[in-house]
What we know:
396 residues; alpha/beta; seven-stranded mixed beta sheet; three-stranded antiparallel beta sheet; 13 helices; globular
Amino acid sequence: MQMYNLGLKLIFAVNFLHMSNIQMVDLKTQYNRLKPDIDKAIFEVIESTDFIQGQPVRDFTKALSTYLNVKHVIPCANGTDALQIALMGLGLKAGDEIITPSFTYFATVEVLALLGLKPVFCEVNEDTFTIDPSQIESLITPKTKAIVPVHLYGQSAQMDEIMAIATKHQLYVIEDDAQAIGGKYTSKNGESKHNGTIGDIGCTSFFPSKNLGCYGDGGAIFTNQDDLAEKLRMIANHGQKKKYIHELVGCNSRLDTLQAAILNVKLPHLDDFCQRRRKVAEQYNAFFASNENIITPKEADYSYHVYHQYTMKLVGVDRDRVKEALANVGIPSMIYYPIPTHKQKVIQSLYDHQIEMPLTEALTKQVLSLPIHTEMQASDVEHIANTFLQIINSLK
């Protein structure tokens, strides 16, 4: 223990000058790089006073549709609303079963519970962290109506297999693309499509830290189905197609004009944002390649991974002590996610039995995410990686 503490003190001393500069996501530096265009876009909205459903919303909707090569984009207030509206649009009934991973952010399952739908949890692939298609069919019952795959950390789920199962069993597919906009999936026939545009509906978030983030909350829904798109638009707008004529019970979920204006500036940079993140991931991978305690992220051959998070697995070392030691020397890290969704008390209360998911539960004790963002320099990555390796070695 004394040697461990001495080692940490030495690492702390080396890192002192860097401590105030390291962030999980550096939104300020990115803003400064884009400042003239962003400030101009915000000022124009304020000058117009067209704050709700203004022209920038329509411009962004069209631009995102073109970028994704999808027929319809329905902007909304946030990513959680996107999922809820998508499920409402499919006409699902209370008690219907939806297959989804437990290894995801709570919102994926939260909206199911909110609508009275029953989450049926599926294990994930231990390398990609996304839903394991080989286990889906065994979970299907007469009550199953949909599959919600999650493109986690920026990596696409295995969509060929998922879509084949959905077609066979006449199930809907709603893609949770909150973490992987800009990413792509290449099917076995060689066709490449953006994540979120393969299933019946795709949903994303524009939370500030996302690869395409605004300066508040925002979200969007994607679909290639005309009738479904019309229904989704109505649901997001109080169930109305024409003002004061409410044909459905919907909700009030809008993308603010100010946020759309910011997203209009950032969307042309999205591919560059993703490439910058990929470069950081490659640099981390090179530093960690020979360390037996670190299992670096695996990029599937069908996926263009956009690294919303750089998430690795730690083996043979105490993950929580590593995280604490990083914090002590000024390097932030995150655990996405420390408690699997099926272990959250509010979700457990929906079932009369204990749900056991050994792989998911093991992953929540192993995963750790290091800083990654568009503004990271090679020297930043080197500093973080070397410090991380020193900590790993000090804890063995």
